[in-house]
Design goal:
Largest sheet: none
Distance between the termini: 40 Å
Number of strands: 0
Oligomer: single chain
Shape: elongated
Number of domains: 2
Structural class: mainly alpha
Order of helices and strands: HHHHHH
Length: 170
């Protein structure tokens, strides 16, 4: 199977999104907004990452650099401080649920979708519909969680961490 230009662009955007999240938490890495192009600024951020994390400094994303960035991102997301509005325990939001908590989740998913191109913004209706379920699946995929489409505590924490990364004044 051929590796298409569209797939390459998606992968560039994905790894730059991870690198952006790392840079927000590690001042050694310059912040570069995720895009589908590997710019000169992206290369500088990759070089800084490689230097900071003990990798060969090439400014290019080889397999070792890719794996390291993903691992660092996941580790940082595991340690992210969640918003505590989500109910504790085994509470879950799923398709068909309604109410203010669903509405809050939709508002946050909408904001995230408006800010990150790999998340679809959702309508805020207060009803956990198919569109909301799909946005939750996208978030779960990005956060390396099981893609259930159900908003559970781990998914909420991933959304909260994502929201914490969006600059004020969005």
């Amino acid at each position: 199977m051929l590796y298409t230009e569209a797939q390459k662009q998606e992968h560039i955007e994905e790894i730059l999104t991870y690198l952006y999240q790392i840079a927000l938490r590690d001042s050694r890495i310059p912040i570069v907004l995720p895009s589908r192009e590997f710019t000169e600024e992206a290369g500088l951020a990759v070089r800084a990452y490689q230097e900071a994390y003990g990798l060969p400094v090439t400014g290019e994303i080889d397999g070792e650099t890719w794996d390291s960035i993903v691992s660092t991102y996941r580790s940082m997301m595991e340690n992210a401080v969640p918003l505590t509005v989500f109910p504790s325990g085994s509470f879950q939001l799923r398709r068909g649920d309604t109410g203010e908590l669903v509405q809050l989740a939709q508002v946050l998913l909408r904001l995230a979708g408006n800010h990150f191109s790999n998340l679809s913004p959702v309508a805020v209706s207060g009803t956990f519909d198919a569109e909301t379920e799909e946005a939750v699946r996208q978030l779960q995929e990005i956060a390396a969680l099981p893609q259930t489409g159900i908003m559970d505590r781990k998914t909420w924490n991933a959304l909260a961490a994502l929201m914490n990364s969006i600059p004020l004044g969005i």
